[in-house]
Amino acid sequence: MIDLVLWVASLPIGQALRRISWLVPWLQVVHILANGVILGAVVMIGMRVWGLSRSQATIAMARRFHPWIWGALVALTVSGVLLIFYTPRRALLDLAFQAKMWTMVVAVAATLALLFVMQPERQGAADKAGPHRLASLLASLTLVLWVGVTLAGRGRWFAAMMTRMIQ
Amino acid sequence: MFKELMLWLEGTPLAMLVSHGQFGFGALEMIHVTATTFVFGMITIVDLRLIGLVSRDAKVSDLYRDVIPLTWAAFVVAAITGTLLFISQARAYSANIAFQMKLLVLLLIGLNMLVFHRFVYRGIAKWDHGSAIPLSARLAGAISLVGWIAVISCARWIAYLMY
């Protein structure tokens, strides 16, 4: 892991980023905004497949939030990767960051599964209003995982406390 | 007078608990950031619909009633945790330009929402469905969207301009 950190730290992109350090807070802002869009889109999909939405409780209406998720995932990944380049040591060696990464892998997998079960050809004539069991379950799981990812983004204090307790 | 008030706030038992507790500040900040992120994600959906960029086949009022209760709940969480974070370092925050700007923008967002509710939302029946959204509603959506982006930008900059 240390080798990886040293290698990432030596890359010219990280050095360039460290020279324009005012960019970093803006990358973090983009990262937070994209995170928010994902949370919002997952809740909106969830409300439709849980049958909680006022009028558009159909899978077809929930599907229109898919591009939001794709767009936000791209923004989240690009800004996140650039931030890792900026401070590889702080990011990669932090326990909270590692927890966030693993949670995110599962969250992305759950999101992809959710989008998959909502595909028109999989729903077919079942494109009706009302709760949809599998999609409901996946939407709940996806939401919980993304909230977890968001919390872990500010989880450094928790990792530090756990480390202190172990020592 | 103001400085004394800030100093007094920092000395209250609640503020001491946040600033000196083992995990007070970190835990509150974690919840504060998550709740604020959630508020932005939810309100953006309504704002973009008001501007007329997305979901034009959905009724504004339906979307509004879906989104607003959850958004308010998250906002209350963000406001409570934010207040607790503030009192733990009241002097430093109140002197922080990014923090001052954040509060100012929040005030503008609040005013925007009041005006929208009082004057624009009342006539919603006329433009609830379809894309002929009045300029006042588009403007309210745009102000809210830009405002929330500004709030989060200021919030992120607070840490960089501390001390």
How is this structure best described in words?
The complex is a heterodimer of chains A (167) and B (163). Chain A has 167 residues and is an all-alpha fold. Chain A has one domain (2-166). Chain A is 80% helix and 0% strand. Chain A contains 10 helices and no strands. Chain A has helices spanning 2-10, 12-19, 23-49, 59-62, 66-86, 88-92, 95-117, 120-123, 133-153, 156-166. In chain A, α3 packs antiparallel against α5, α3 (23-49) runs antiparallel to α9 (133-153) and α7 packs antiparallel against α9 (133-153). Chain A is elongated, with a radius of gyration of 19 Å. The two termini of chain A are 21 Å apart. Chain B is mainly α. Chain B has one domain (2-160). Chain B has helices at 2-11, 13-20, 24-51, 60-88, 90-94, 97-120, 135-160. The radius of gyration of chain B is 18 Å and the shape is elongated. Chain B starts with a helix and ends with a helix. The mean pLDDT of chain B is 90. The A-B interface holds A 25-26, 28-29, 32-33, 35-41, 43-44, 47, 52-56, 61, 64, 147, 150-151, 153-158, 160-161 and B 22-23, 25-27, 29-31, 33-34, 37-42, 44-45, 54-55, 58-59, 62, 65-67, 70, 149, 152-153, 156-157, 160.
Question: How much of the polypeptide of chain B forms β-strand, as a percent range?
Answer: under 5%
Give the helix level of chain A as a range of percent. over 70%
How many structural domains can be distinguished in the coordinates of chain A?
Answer: 1
Largest sheet of chain A: none
> What does the oligomeric state look like here?
heterodimer
Given the C-alpha coordinates, what overall shape of chain A results?
elongated
Question: What's the pLDDT, averaged over the residues of chain B?
Answer: 90
Mean pLDDT of chain A: 84
Could you state the order of secondary-structure elements of chain B as H and E?
HHHHHHH
Instruction: Give me the count of strands of chain B.
Output: 0
Anisotropy-based shape of chain B: elongated
Largest sheet features of chain B = none
Number of domains of chain B: 1
Tally of DSSP helical segments of chain B: 7
Strand content of chain A: under 5%
